[in-house]
Each structure stands twice: as structure tokens, then as C-alpha cells.
Amino acid sequence: MGIKTHVIGFPRIGSLRELKFALEKYFKNEIDQNELEAISKEIRLNNYKILKNIDYIPSNDFSYYDNLLDTAYLFNIIPQRYKKLNLSKIDTYFAMARGYQHGFKDVKALAMKKWFNTNYHYIVPEFDDDIELKINSTKPFDLYIEAKELGYNTTPSIIGPLTLLKLIRFTGNKNISNIKDEISLLYKEILNRFTCLGASWIQIQEPILVTDLSSDDKKLFKELYNNILSDKSINVLLQTYFGDVRDFINEINDLAFDGVGLDFIEGSKTLDLVNKINNKIIFAGVINGKNIWKNNYKKTIDIINKINNKNIVISTSCSLQHVPYTIENEEKLSDSYLRHFSFAKEKVNELNELKNILENNNNVLLEENQKLFNIDRNCNDIKVRERINSIDDKLFERLPKFSEREQIQKKKFMLPLLPTTTIGSFPQTKDVKLNRSSYKKGLISKEEYINFNKEKIKECIKFQEEIGLDVLVHGEYERNDMVEYFGENLNGYIFTDKAWVQSYGTRCVKPPVIWGDISRRGEITVSWLKYAKSLTNKPIKGMLTGPVTILNWSFPREDISIKESALQIAFAIRDEVLDLEKNGIDIIQIDEAALREKLPLRKEDWDKEYLSWAIPAFRLVHSGVKPETQIHTHMCYSEFKDIISAIDDMDADVITFEASRSDLLILDELKKNNFKTEVGPGVYDIHSPRVPSVKEIEDAILEMINKLGYNKLWVNPDCGLKTRGEAEVKESLLNLVTAAKNVRLKL
Length: 747
Ligand code: GLN
Ligand code: ZN
Known about the structure:
Layout: E1 4-5, H1 18-27, H2 33-51, E2 58-59, H3 67-74, H4 80-83, H5 89-98, E3 100-102, E4 105-107, E5 112-114, E6 121-123, E7 126-127, H6 139-149, E8 155-159, H7 161-167, E9 169-170, H8 176-197, E10 201-205, H9 215-229, E11 235-239, H10 249-254, E12 259-263, H11 270-274, E13 281-287, H12 297-305, E14 312-316, H13 335-338, H14 344-360, H15 363-374, H16 382-389, H17 402-413, H18 430-440, H19 446-467, H20 484-488, E15 490-494, E16 501-504, E17 507-509, E18 513-520, H21 526-534, E19 541-545, H22 547-552, H23 562-582, E20 587-591, H24 603-622, E21 630-635, H25 644-648, E22 654-657, H26 666-672, E23 678-681, H27 694-708, H28 726-746
Parallel strand pairs: 1-14, 2-8, 7-9, 8-10, 10-11, 11-12, 12-13, 13-14, 19-20, 20-21, 21-22, 22-23
Antiparallel strand pairs: 3-4, 5-6, 15-18, 16-17
Zinc ion binds at residues 423, 593, 634, 636, 719-720.
């Protein structure tokens, strides 16, 4: 059969994070816009070389910061406060992404949110009443032309109108209905321009279709696309991913799309739905765009064979930007591991191979692939399995109950009203990173490594004491990353060297790989915390990462359930919690930064598929501590409006979370739900280099008190400080403590 291949998007950060480094230089004025563009072009060129045998090669998947921001910018959805800065085009764009602070000009960045169920963050477009919609950028067209000149007739890719409209935040009186017609005209215009340029296909991405939508949204979808697709002369691929389109089959059938991209990996119903789609080319997302294991060709072919429509293009399940670039950069892992892995470049090859197998009955390739799945990976640990099998329900229950613990802890710690604290990490300056990397490379001794960190801890404690924070941290200087660090101390984990995945803007993470059953190798954080405690009489907060986050920010196994992996990790972290407590650390924060992230996109799947094991896994970690030990947790992003009771059910004593970038909207919800856990909604945004003023923080605290009262309120930044510069952090924290003190006087 004639089979074609398609890739939704390719990592744009570069094989070795070239874009990140170029952007950072640009932001520091070390290179100019031309140099930035030249480096970006080089990245795109390399990507096209990898994609050259793919039938539908994407363009415009490249972005300097974020594709949704690009889309908003393309339509001139630029709030006035950024326009008023009077910057160049590109710097206006970056001001929206990162904020701008220069002389008397001082504007915050737009909000940032997680992109559906991934660890990638998009910039939330904001629409004010003064925005005049128009095509404001030539980027998609320029990139198409650039590729064409290189010899690739690409499929330009753009985020679709429904996803855009649903993700925009309207800040004035206008809403979706006021702009939907104009928006569809603009998309139409884009289709026309691409037609004129000679494109035969365009990929319009509508991931929003895999979420729960209302009947109004359905109507809107039909309306938008009826307009956009009328009298078109270009083929339109409606691309979905991260789930299935169970509510939209009729609409998709009725509209004049030429192809539909469906996710066969995460879409639990896709296989049932695909045969209900009529008269469209099926772009079957069968190569997992989120995990790093080799594709099992036999299983994939079985899936493809179940699709009745033989007009099939095989594709990735989502953009490959969610996996690392290539295993070729991995020099340390032996082939016994690497042969099981497939990163972006290798996944492209998998598509080419699958095409070869399907078209030419290439059994050699197929058998070669099958051999991999018959190898015993040697990854089971009987002791771990026994511990899991003998779990007793009592392990999920901390006693006494929260209200009693709260009183006991108030008496014990005697903290002032509005206690101040931080989320854990302090700036990872060059010397801190150098110390760690020198030690890893064997350039310095263990003793030198430890002594350097101790010096840092000493400075950090001294600083926190000086400015008057109430609950201190040790600064996390020993950690590269909150998940990798724990993974390194757990059996069952393996690590890559250069397998970076973009998290937001210039920030990348290197998720470790869960290879086998998980257990703790020995004490992980205890010695650092004991040292920190010896330096001060103030309370010290131990700092751990929770099981759900460790799991969610790792590449998970595909041979056992993620629930089982989560429980294994929970036991390992529980052992560490109890060791910290034994060593006198009586405040322990267990970060669940990523808890919200893997919540299924459909409400009907939340409990059964996720919360029913994620919350118990967290409880298992801390259920063994004494009543007077205070358990904190931290979550990035306050987008937990709908799961507030589940968060309360984690049964921590204190929770800190992001709030500043979302205008504190979450506070009303906490109030409405009678949230029992003490809370520290972040009073300023650490994702931007901007220093918040005392007044601004005071206002935030007052607003919080206004909504939540002051009895349960903590004052803290909204996340760890490791990505920030030292000078900013000092100023910001001093302002934070001053603001808290000022407000205390008023109470
Ligand atoms: N304790 C971690 C830190 O401060 C938490 C990081 C996070 O929430 N992403 O770095
Ligand atoms: Zn955080």
C-alpha cells in the first residue's frame, strides 16, 4: 500500500541547545538580531536535513520563544503596555514573553501556563479592547520561503483559531464572539497567502479538541471553519494531539478538511473513532512524541491495519519538541540501554522504516525491531515488589488529623503572623554549577566539592538571617535539577547526557529515565540539611521532591503502570522523610511541582486514571511523621481550581504555589472550598528578572488577606530562585520581608 509520512513538529532548541545559548546572549546584548537569526537558520537547516525523507515536513514549527505567542503576535494581539515600550518588533515580542525592565520602563511578562498535559509552557495571549486585529508578522511565510529555497516544499504549521481563542485571556469588555469573525478572516488570508506561495498543504493544530468543550464551543468550531475553509485552494490538515476527538467526529466529517491528524498514543478512543471519519486522509499519530522508547513496529502495524481507510499518512502523536534531539549526543550510556531508545531524530527514522516495512514488506527491518522487545532488560527488584504488594491502607493516613497538628505546630514553632519563607533553591550561579560539574568530571575531590557547597550554604543561611526570613532553606546548591538529583540517588534510574527538552523559552530540562524498579540507595539530603541546621537557631526546611513529580518529570517505563512506579518512588522518598525527621529536621517540604500537569485532559478520566493513585502516593510519603513535624508541599502553577479538594486531601500542613502571574484568581476558589491547608500563594513572579517593589508585594499580601484572612497565610516567592541572578534575588527577598513586616504592623 502507498504510505506517506508526516511529522507534526521538530525540536527547535537545536541539537545541543544552540537556540537557548543564542537567546541568552541576545538578551545580554552579546549578539545582535542578525546573529540570532543566523543561528536560528542553522538550526532549521539541520532539522530539514533530518526530515528530508519525510513526505510532509513541517515549517513554522520554529519559534524564538513559544508558538502560541507567535500566533498571537502574528495577529497583532499585543497588549498596549508592550506597544507603549516602543521597542523593535522582536524586542516587543520578547517583552511579552519575559517582561521588560529598563530605566523607568517596567512591564511584567504575560502569564505562562502548561501546554495541555505537558511540561512545556506557553505564553497566555492577552486581548485588550484596543487591539486591532491584522496580520502583523511575515514569519510563517518567510520560513516557508526559506525552506523552499533550500529545496523543501514544507507543510506550514499554525495553531488553529479555536485553540487560540480558547486560550486567550480577555482583559477588556471584548470576548470571543466580538473577534471570531475577524479571526476567521485572518486565517483565511493566511491560507490564501500560502496558496500563492505554492504550498499544497497547511497543518492547523487544534489540540483543544481533545479536551472537554461545550456545545457553544462546537458551534464556534463549525462557524470558524465554515468560513476559513470556504473556497480554499490549499489542502488543510486538521491536526489534533494529546488525546482523542470523541466529541467532534460529526463536525470534522461535515467540514471541508482534507486530512485529520489523530493521536493513537494518548487518545484512548482514537482507534474506535478513526473508522467513523469519512473522506479524509488519516494522519495516524503512531510514533510516541512524548516518550523515548523505541517503537514496537509489530504493534504499530497492527494498529494501522485496523484502520479501514487506506488513505493513511503515518505520523508522530504530537510535536517531537517534547522529546530530546538525538541519541547520537549520548556518549556515556552503553548500547545495551541506547538500543531501546528513540529520540526525535531516531523517531523520524522510525517513520521512514515503518513506511519501508509497509510498502515493501521489509521483514528484515521488522524482525530486527522485534528482537529488541524480546530482550530481558533486567529491571525487576523482588524486594521492591514485595513492599508494594504488602501495602496496608494505614500507610495512606497521617495521624492525628490536620486541625490537631496545626495547633501542635503553632505552639512548637511560634512563627510570627505571615511567616516568610522561600521555595528552596537559591541562584545557581556559575561557580555553583562549575563546582558540581568539576566534581562530576573528577577534576576536584569529594571533599573540595562538599566544602564549596558548605560555604555556599553558610552564606545562604547568613543572608536569610540578615534579611529576616522566618523559615530558612539550605539553597539546593548540590542539585542540578529537582528530579534528576533524586533520580541519581535512586536505584532503577538512568541518565542521559544531553537529552534536553524545552520547558519554557530558553529553559530546558533533562528528564531522567525510569529503567527499572525504584528504591533508595541510601540517605540523600540528610547531611546537607544537618549542616544547615547547625548554623542557625531558626527553623530549617528540608527539601524533597515528591513521587508524582519525580514520575511526571521522568521518562516513564512502558512495561509497568505509572501507578506502580509512583508507589515505588513514594516508598523511597518516605524513607528519606523519616531519616530527615530522625536527624532533627522538623519542617520538610515535599515538592509536587508537577502534580497538576498529568491530570487527564478530560474530567471524566481525572479520578480513575490519576488522582486515585497520585494523591495516595503523596500521602504515603509523609504519613509516618510525628504530629509536630510540619510537612510543606509546593506546586508550580495555581491551575488547580478544579482539584482543590484533592490538593487539600494531600494532607500537607502548608502549601505554597504560583499565583502572581495569574492575578491571584485562585484565592476566591480556596475561600469557596474552605481550604484547610495553610497556604503561601506566591507574592511575586520568579520566572522573570524583574524586581518587585515593596509596595507591590504589600498590595499582593493585602489582597490575599482580604480573601483568605491572615491566620493560614504564608509569604513567599512563587517558585524556586535557582534560575535568577543573585542581585535580583537579594533585592526581591528583602522587599518581600519588608512588605511582610509592614503588613504585620498594620494587623
Ligand atoms: N524546591 C524547588 C526549588 O526551589 C522547587 C522547584 C519547582 O517548584 N519547580 O527549586
Ligand atoms: Zn515551583
